[in-house]
Structures are given as structure tokens and as C-alpha cells.
Design a protein that fits this description.
Strand content: under 5%
Number of helices: 11
Order of helices and strands: HHHHHHHHHHH
Shape: elongated
Structural class: mainly alpha
Largest sheet: none
């Protein structure tokens, strides 16, 4: 009875985390659809042109929706931490720490609005020298977009999902199926999408179990909130 009463104060958090997971699930197909319909630019000049002609599409191609998605995932991680900490608080604390560190690293690495600003300066420049310097600055930002920080983010979140799933396996709150699916997705996530063809394959393959895991997790968090 004491445990049930103690957990009552987290009902709002479970509800928020559940809806955050649902919102993230809506964003993923929207981002994929944009990538399929409109090709991603291949040069800094084409990036500047895209921002100039359609700044919103440029931001989406620069992972603006992915930024929102990761913030929602952070909220979901927090809800999972509260729900599972009684089973193994030490592991869940490490999982939450790594997950939030990974997301924070990614958010800091994203340069979408910086590129938008430089693009505006490029088209407002009055000389070729100024444009050349702005192209160089834009290329530097673009080069760091999916560099070390992105790699760290990918690996840390894969480890986070594996740790959470391992605790889930021993918990009665979530079904074993949810934990196994999360474990599969976490293992696949440990190969970054930037690691050539194999990275791209693993990245795409991880989306399916991640989507299913998030659906099951969102549903369970909302059930707990009631």
C-alpha cells in the first residue's frame, strides 16, 4: 500500500511521458516522408539555396524535427526511470544519465539555425569575397553536423536503450515482449548511421523495433498514469 501511495505523485509524469512518446511517434514518419519527397542537398551551395527558397524545409532537412523528437525522448526516458527505478535504481540512473548526455550532445552539435543565418548573410553579401568566406563558414558547420558528437549521441542512446530493456526484463510493470523489442533496437542503434552502408542498414533496421517499443511503452505509461 505504501509503495502504491508513493507512486501516486508521479501519475502526471507518466501521462506526460506517454504523450511525449506518442508525439515522437508522429514526428518520425513526417521526417521520413520529407526525406523521401525532397532530396537532401549535397553541397553547401545547394544548402544555402534551399534555405533561401524554403527556410522551413531547410531546417527540417537539418534535423529540426529530430531535435524536437529527441526532447520528447528525454521526457520518455524520465518516465521510464521513475517507473523502473524500484527494480534497479543503479542501472536506471546510469541509463538516464547516458541517455540525457547523448541527447544533450546531439542538441549541441546541431547547427541548423546557424546555417540558416549564414545563408541569409550569403545572399545579402555584396562581394564575391564575402560570399566565399560565408561558403567556407557554412562548410565548416556542415562538416561537424554528423561528426564526433553525432557518433557519441548514437552510441550512448543505444546503450541507454539496452540498459532500460534489461531492467524491463525483470520488471512486472512492462511486458517481456516490450523489453525484448527494446533490446533488439538498442543493439542495432549501437552502429551509427554514419558508419557507411552497414551503419545505414542498422540505422534503418533499428527504426522498426524502436517504433514498436515506443508504442508499447507509451501505452503502458498512460495505463500507469490512470
Amino acid at each position: 500500500m505504501e509503495q502504491i501511495q508513493a507512486e501516486t505523485k508521479w501519475k502526471s509524469l507518466y501521462r506526460i511521458a506517454g504523450f511525449a512518446a506518442i508525439a515522437m511517434l508522429v514526428i518520425i514518419p513526417v521526417q521520413i516522408l520529407v526525406f523521401v519527397v525532397t532530396p537532401i542537398p549535397v553541397s553547401i551551395e545547394s544548402w544555402f539555396s534551399l534555405f533561401h527558397n524554403n527556410w522551413l524545409l531547410g531546417l527540417i532537412h537539418q534535423d529540426m524535427l529530430y531535435i524536437v523528437s529527441n526532447i520528447l525522448v528525454a521526457v520518455m526516458y524520465l518516465g521510464l526511470y521513475i517507473a523502473l527505478r524500484a527494480k534497479n535504481e543503479s542501472v536506471m540512473t546510469v541509463a538516464l544519465l547516458l541517455g540525457l548526455l547523448g541527447i544533450a550532445t546531439y542538441l549541441a552539435s546541431n547547427k541548423s539555425f546557424e546555417l540558416l543565418g549564414i545563408s541569409n548573410q550569403y545572399y545579402a553579401a555584396s562581394t564575391e569575397t564575402q560570399q566565399f568566406m560565408l561558403l567556407a563558414a557554412g562548410q565548416a558547420l556542415l562538416s561537424g553536423w554528423q561528426g564526433t558528437a553525432f557518433l557519441i549521441y548514437y552510441i550512448l542512446n543505444g546503450i541507454t536503450l539496452v540498459l532500460i530493456s534489461c531492467v524491463m526484463l525483470k520488471s512486472v510493470i512492462f511486458k517481456r515482449t516490450t523489453a525484448v523489442i527494446g533490446l533488439i533496437s538498442g543493439v542495432l542503434m549501437m552502429i551509427p548511421s554514419t558508419a557507411g552502408t552497414i551503419g545505414l542498414v542498422f540505422s534503418l533496421a533499428s527504426l522498426i523495433p524502436w517504433y514498436i517499443f515506443s508504442i508499447l511503452t507509451a501505452r503502458r505509461l498512460l495505463q500507469i498514469s490512470r
